[in-house]
């Protein structure tokens, strides 16, 4: 099995994606931009897309090619970012949530609840 590895490419691509989504939110045209179209529909529609794309990723992990798994994961990340934007939750907020968990085992965290 291949390691996940760290990826400067992913970090750069996600930063670019975040900026693009912000730009579409500010001046996107819903007839030309999927992002603007989704954002215009509000958080409920964004949530539906996150759910749908999550199911598609799960299905790909179960029985599809590595390329499809990567593609569906990209769909999930994109739609998660749009959903965050629809709620006004920033990437810094997500980073803070991830940082708080660093070094804490998920098993220990669950046991402490
Ligand atoms: N990363 C994405 C991205 N991923 C997926 N999608 C769109 O999300 C939509 C998903 O729709 P569907 O559910 O119908 O598609 P699907 O799940 O692939 O199809 P099915 O398998 O369900 O049939 C498609 O129109 C995709 O093109 C994306 N649209 C935009 N981006 C990024 O956002 C940027 C701005 O895009 P616009 O806002 O459209 O200009 C783009 O340059 C990209 O960087």
From TrEMBL:
Pathway: Amino-acid biosynthesis; L-histidine biosynthesis; L-histidine from 5-phospho-alpha-D-ribose 1-diphosphate: step 2/9
GO BP, sorted A to Z: L-histidine biosynthetic process
Coiled coil (residue ranges): none
One Pfam family recorded for the sequence: PRA-PH
InterPro entries: HisE (IPR008179), PRib-ATP_PPHydrolase-like (IPR021130)
EC number, UniProt record: 3.6.1.31
Keyword annotations of the record: Amino-acid biosynthesis, ATP-binding, Histidine biosynthesis, Hydrolase, Nucleotide-binding
Reaction it catalyzes: 1-(5-phospho-beta-D-ribosyl)-ATP + H2O = 1-(5-phospho-beta-D-ribosyl)-5'-AMP + diphosphate + H(+)
GO molecular function, one term: phosphoribosyl-ATP diphosphatase activity
Matching NCBIfam families: histidine_hisI
Family as reported in the entry's similarity comment: Belongs to the PRA-PH family.
Descriptive protein name: phosphoribosyl-ATP diphosphatase
Organism (species): Hyphomonas atlantica
């Amino acid at each position: 099995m291949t390691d996940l590895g760290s990826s400067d490419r992913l970090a750069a691509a996600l930063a670019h994606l975040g900026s693009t989504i912000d730009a579409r939110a500010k001046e996107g045209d819903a007839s030309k931009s999927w992002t603007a179209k989704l954002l215009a529909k509000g958080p409920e529609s964004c949530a539906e897309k996150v759910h749908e794309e999550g199911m598609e990723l799960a299905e790909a992990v179960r029985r599809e090619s590595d390329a499809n798994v990567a593609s569906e994961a990209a769909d999930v990340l994109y739609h998660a970012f749009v959903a965050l934007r629809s709620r006004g939750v920033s990437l810094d907020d997500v980073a803070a949530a991830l940082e708080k968990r660093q070094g804490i085992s998920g098993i220990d965290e669950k046991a402490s609840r």
